Write the structure tokens for this entry.
Amino acid sequence: MTKGKLVTFEGIDGSGKSTQILKAYNHIRGRGVECRLFREPGGTALGESIRSILLSAAEDGLSMDGYTEFLLFAAARSELSHTIIKPLLESGCTVLLDRFADSSTAYQGYGRGVDLDFILRTNGIATGGISPDLTILFDIDPETALTRPGNFDDRIEKQGLDFFRRVRSGFLTLAKSEPGRFKVVDASRNIETIAREVYRCIDELLG
Ligand code: ADP
Ligand code: TYD
């Protein structure tokens, strides 16, 4: 059976992932390749409900234990992976994901101090063992990313700039540990220059 490719887009808030994933989606479809696009947390009705719990808790200033937070992200991931992504990949469809397991390692692990081994093992179960064929990491300093339009000011105020520095460096550590899977792109450049680099990576993967 043909297996579809899984490509994940990762990076800190404001790094430009969502802008680039939409362009990449149109690029792939323009080549006549079957492709679906999802975001995490979300992508299923249950996942979107979990997303609203997480975002409304953050907006209401409710403190949440790092493990609770991780397990909610992992629950949304489990639902999406088992019910949507796995069947799509098995049918040969290419899947693009705005965030996946690496976001938990970077945000809850490196950012909030949740045990990294626990995250790794739980993610293994939540993803059903699916691993991305390619992960594009949009690397940028938090000062630049979080001053872009998109209400990121609130997030700096709530979590602090140091939190996002730890998350960025967590992503870079992951990229170094798996250089075959990760492609790190400089996300401080203009949208079209970055998009050209993203298209190149994807075209190389899809052949
Ligand atoms: P993310 O999904 O990583 O949080 P977005 O794609 O939503 O990031 O982009 C955050 C904001 O920055 C949006 O207002 C978007 O228009 C803008 N933006 C995205 N990419 C760039 C770029 N390369 N240069 C400047 N602004 C950008
Ligand atoms: P979202 O509005 O989608 O942010 P962005 O456009 O930057 O992706 O909100 C998702 C937030 O959830 C974002 O701050 C990253 C965070 N997150 C985690 O902390 N852990 C995770 O496992 C995932 C998937 C997201």
Remarks:
- Residues 6-206 form a domain with the Rossmann fold fold (CATH 3.40.50.300).
- The longest strand covers residues 6-11.
- The two ends are 18 Å apart (CA to CA).
- The CA atoms of residues 67 and 114 lie 6 Å apart.
